């Protein structure tokens, strides 16, 4: 559950919605750029998160999420396409936070709205810290979207490109 005071939760629920979703249902679909006006906080049940690592390859299970986890927060905050397909493994209950509901909460009770935004920020930070990126250093994608190898020195090339992309001060290659 959300670490808000009980009275905060009562106030927030006047603007937000608790939804029950049957097993097998899609909660969030990967690459969806239309339905980004909500995020979910899993209250109970299990949700499988799958992602397509390489185009044309079957999706891989990235994680199984349980109670207390925020889902879809990045797309909710920046409006960009969703990452990963989230499907209910069991029946689930979620707190659905919409932009309209959050704006209504902030407008009617700014203190509770600010505390909820802080909770959302902490959840997003926790998810980001869990992320481990694995990169096949010698692989690339051709102009026709085919997975290909970069050839001799491809791992070094990938290391330098990733270092530049994240703004690293140093890229050490051994």
Describe this structure in words.
Strands 1-8-3-6 form a 4-stranded antiparallel sheet. A 4-stranded antiparallel sheet has the order 2-7-4-5, with no helix packed on it. With 174 residues, the chain is of the alpha+beta class. β9 (139-141) and β10 form a beta hairpin. It has helices at 6-12, 73-78, 99-108, 110-130, 154-166, and strands at residues 17-21, 26-28, 38-44, 47-51, 60-65, 70-71, 85-88, 92-98, 139-141, 147-149. The longest helix is centred in the C-terminal third of the chain and has 21 residues, at 110-130.
The separation of the N and C termini measures 46 Å
Number of alpha- plus pi-helical segments: 5
Overall body shape: elongated
Computed CA radius of gyration, to the nearest angstrom: 19 Å
Please give the share of residues in helix: 25-40%
* Portion in beta strands: 25-35%
Major beta sheet summary = 4 strands, antiparallel
Unreliable segments of 5+ consecutive residues: none
> On the 0-100 scale, what is the average pLDDT?
81
Helix-strand string: HEEEEEEHEEHHEEH
